[in-house]
Amino acid sequence: MERKIRNKDPLGRGLGCHPYVYTMLSIAGILTFLFVWQLLLVTGVVSDRYISKPTELFLLLIRKFSDKSPDGSTLPIATLASLKVAVTGLVLAIVTGVPLGLIMGWYKGADRFFSPIFEVLRPIPPISWIPLTIVWLGIGLRAKAFIIFFAAFIPCVINSYAGIKMTQKVLINVAKTCGASNFTIFYKVGIPSAMPMTFAGIRVALGNAWSTLVAAEMLAANAGLGYMILMGRSFARPDIIMLGMVCIGALGALFTGILGIFEKRITGWRR
Amino acid sequence: MDEHKVRLEISELSKSYETKEGRFQAVEKIDLKVYDNEFLVLLGPGNCGKTVLLNMIAGLEQPTSGEIRLDGSVIQGSDRRIGMVFQKLALMPWKTVMQNTEIGPKFRGVKKEERRKKAQSYIDLVGLNGFEKAYPAQLSGGMKQRVGIARAYTNDPEILLMDEPFGALDAQTRFVMEQEVQRIWEQEKRTIIFVTNNIEEACFLGDRIVLFSECPARMKEIYVNDLKRPRDVISQEFLKLRAMISDNTDLAL
Predict the structure, then answer these.
(1) A35, A102, A139, A230 — which has fewest CB within 10 A?
(2) Domain assignment of residue B105, yes or no
(3) Nearest residue of B to residue A167, measured between CA atoms
C-alpha cells in the first residue's frame, strides 16, 4: 500500500521513493550547505573578516526586524519597499507584455507594426534606462518600477509571441471546421497553446526583475534590499550585505514557487 | 431509390501550388458524386493529394478551379454541415475529453446543458464513458481518435470527412477502430468520406472505393463494394476485391 505513492518522472529516473524523502533531501541539501559554510569559518579556513557565519546572519536577521542601523530602515520595511517595486514592475510587464506578444504572434499586421519598434528596444539593457529614468521620474517607486518593467517586459513579449506561433495547424483547422471565427480561434486555441511558453517567459521575467531591482536600488533609492546592500558596503559591514543577498535569494525562490503553483493550475493538462 | 440521392457533387476540381521549382499540381480535375448516407472511401498512395481534396471539401483550402456543391449549392469556406476527423490526433491538450467533444456546439454558442447532453451521448457511443474528465495526455492513441470521432459527430455534420484517421495507430488498434467506425456509422447513418492508403481498410469499410493515381491525384477507377457487413477479411470475395484493387494501384515511393 505505502509503496504506491511514487514520484512520477517522465524519463523513469529517480528512486521511486515517497515524496517526503525528496523533501528531506532538499532540506538536507540546504543544511549541509550552511553547515559547511559555518565549519569553514569556525575552523578559520576562511577569515570571518570577510564573511559572517550563518548563525551570526540568523541573529542579525532577527535583530534587523527592529534595528534601523546602518541603512536607515528595518528589514521588513526594506523588504516591503523592494517588493513593491518588483511586483509593480513585474505585474505591469506581464499585463502589457503577454497580450502584446500574443497579438503580435497571431495577427500579421500587428507583428509588422510592432516588430521594428520592439527589435530596437530589445537590445537596450534595462540598466541603461536608469539615468534617463532618474531624469524623468526621480528615484521614487515609479522610477524603479519603470526599470524593472523594461527588464521583465521583453521576455514576456518574446515568449508569448513564440508560444502562440507554435500553435499546431491541425488544431486551428479543427476549430475552423467547427465554424469558429479567427478571433475565437485566437482566444480558444492560440492562447491556451501559448501558455506553457508564456509561463517560461514569465519565469525569466521574474529573474530579470529581481536582478534589475538590486541594480536600480543601488543607483537610486533610499530604502530597499538593494539599498541595504549598498549601505553595507559604505559601512564595511559584510554581514549586512550578505543578509540583503540572502533575503533577495529567498524572496526570489518564494516567487518562483508561487509562480510554479499558478503554472500548475493553468497548464495542469501537461501531465 | 433514396440511397442514390446525390449530396455532394465535385466537378472539375483542381488544386495547384506555386513553389520555387514551379507549379505543383496536387489535385487534377476530379469529378465525383457522393450519395446520401454512403460510406465512400478515397484510396490512393501516400501523398497523392487526397488530403488536399478533403481539405478543399472542408473549406480549409481554396480550389484553383472547379467547384464543390452540397445539396446543389456551391460551398464556400468551412461549412458546418461538413465535419472532419483529422489525421493527427488533433485534440486540444488543455481540454478534457468532454470539453474536446463539445467544442463544435460551444463555438456556435449552444447552451452548456444542451451541448453536454449531446456530447455525452456520443462519448457513450464511441465507448469512452467514464473518461469524460480525462485529459488527452492520459489517453491511448485509439482513445484519442475515438474522441476525435465523437467530436465530429457532436457537431452534427451531414457529411463527415475522415482523413486517414487511423494512420497513426498500431495494426491491432487500427482494426478495432475500423470495426468501431463501421458500428457507429451503422448506428448513426451519415455520409462519410474516408481517406486511406490502406487497401484492406478501404475494402472493409467502403460502399464505394475511389482509387486515386499517384501525384497529381486523378481518379483511376471506382469500385462498388456490396459485400455484406461486417465483412470477413479472409473470405474469397473480399480477397478477390482486394487483389483487384491492389493490382491497379500505383506504387508510392
Answers:
(1) A35
(2) no
(3) B92
Please report the pLDDT score of residue B252 as a whole number: 54
Can you tell me the distance from the alpha carbon of B97 to that of B130, in angstroms, rounded to the nearest whole number?
A: 10
Residue carrying C-alpha cell 484492406:
B200
| Cβ pairs bridging A and B (under 8 Å) | 65
Please indicate, yes or no, if residue B59 is contained in any of the structural domains: yes
Mean pLDDT of chain A: 86
In Å, what is the CA distance from A167 to each residue of A107, A171, A194, A199? 13, 8, 7, 15
User: By mean pLDDT, which of A28-37, B139-148, B208-217 is the weakest?
Assistant: B208-217
Q: What is the mean pLDDT of chain B?
A: 87
Q: Are A57 and A243 in contact (CB under 8 A)?
A: yes
- Which positions in chain A touch B154 (Cβ < 8 Å)? none
Domain segments of chain A as ranges = 2-51, 60-266
> Which ranges of chain A would DSSP assign to H, the alpha helix?
19-42, 54-63, 75-106, 108-121, 130-137, 141-165, 169-177, 182-185, 191-219, 225-234, 238-266
User: Is residue B3 very low, low, confident or very high in pLDDT (cuts 50, 70, 90)?
Assistant: low
Calculate how close chain B gets to A187, using CA atoms only, in Å: 11
CA A82 to CA A213: how far, in whole Å?
Answer: 7
Instruction: Enter the C-alpha cell of residue A248.
Output: 533577495
Domain with B189 in it: what CATH number? 3.40.50.300
For B4-53, where are the E strands, in sequence order?
A: 6-19, 22-35, 39-43
- Across the interface, of B55, B78, B135, the residue whose CB is closest to A269 is B135
CATH of domain A60-266: 1.10.3720.10
